[in-house]
Design brief:
- The protein is α/β, with parallel strands linked by helices.
- The chain has one domain.
- It has helices at about 1-30, 40-55, 85-90, 110-115, 125-140, 165-175, 185-190, 200-205, 230-249, and strands at about 60-65, 75, 95-100, 120, 145, 175-185, 210-215.
- The protein has a seven-stranded mixed beta sheet, sandwiched between helices.
- Helix 2 crosses helix 3 and helix 5 (about 125-140) packs parallel to helix 6 (about 165-175).
- The radius of gyration is 18 Å and the shape is globular.
- The chain starts with a helix and ends with a helix.
């Protein structure tokens, strides 16, 4: 009884901290010069960690890589849940590629824009083409990019063929790819499938009895060994299917 009360108090404190910090970040986003600044990006990563604490998440990093992670990289990740959108930037200094609808999300949309989040309309071929060019500019500026090669959030299993944008970006910029695999022990609670809304899922996260989020980090893969983006995408898709078999089955 006492332990549950303490957990409730800690959760309440984290929720209050996140609410106050979100209000601060929203106001701060209106200050001239803050958009895509290093300071706001640093605060955004702290905001993601605050969001994770407010949800009660326990993020566990498994460093499966043998070699050190390079300073400049493109991070790719599977996308079973909405949690990756905060867990990945909480753990890595990356600018994410998000669906364009995120821009219109209440408060959160403006915070993401000010943090330098990149956007794509997944249903528009022109937008997808432009997104690669925008990411290339960001990569050439020394920014680390994070994106999800499935091209969306389709559930706990990888069922969609990988989009080639990440791999084209890697080849064109000469930037290695760092593959990350996320595993939720309470897969059903965290999986985002229709008809659930974001509000539904946040409630599921808050009420889940198992909030462990495991991040498996692997060695970077250089683009030089692949003849084109198609071969690179095929190689990484096979890599992820093997990790899926290992960790989910």
């Amino acid at each position: 009884m006492v332990e549950r009360l303490l957990q409730f108090i800690i959760q309440l404190i984290n929720l209050l901290e996140f609410s106050a910090f979100t209000f601060f970040m929203y106001l701060f986003s209106f200050i001239s010069g803050m958009h895509d600044s290093r300071l706001y990006f640093y605060l955004f990563r702290y905001w993601c960690r605050s969001f994770s604490r407010a949800l009660g998440l326990n993020i566990i990093l498994h460093q499966k890589n043998i070699k050190p992670i390079p300073e400049h990289y493109i991070l790719i990740c599977n996308h079973p849940s909405a949690v990756e959108d905060i867990a990945v930037p909480a753990m890595y200094p990356v600018h994410s590629l998000a669906k364009i609808q995120v821009k219109d999300w209440f408060i959160v949309g403006r915070i993401n824009q000010a943090a330098g989040t990149l956007y794509v309309d997944r249903d528009d071929p022109v937008s997808r083409r432009n997104a690669v060019d925008h990411m290339l500019i960001a990569a050439n500026q020394g920014k680390n990019i994070a994106l999800y090669p499935e091209g969306g959030c389709f559930g706990r299993r990888i069922t969609q063929p990988f989009k080639r944008g990440a791999f084209e970006l890697s080849i064109r910029s000469g930037t290695p790819i760092v593959p990350v695999f996320i595993y939720y022990q309470a897969q059903e609670d965290f999986e985002w499938v229709k008809p659930f809304t974001l509000v539904d899922k946040i409630w599921h996260f808050l009420t889940s009895k198992n909030k462990n989020v495991e991040i498996f980090q692997f060695d970077a893969v250089a683009p030089e060994g692949f003849k084109d983006k198609y071969a690179f995408a095929e190689y990484m898709e096979d890599f992820y299917h093997k990790k899926q078999t290992k960790y989910l089955e």
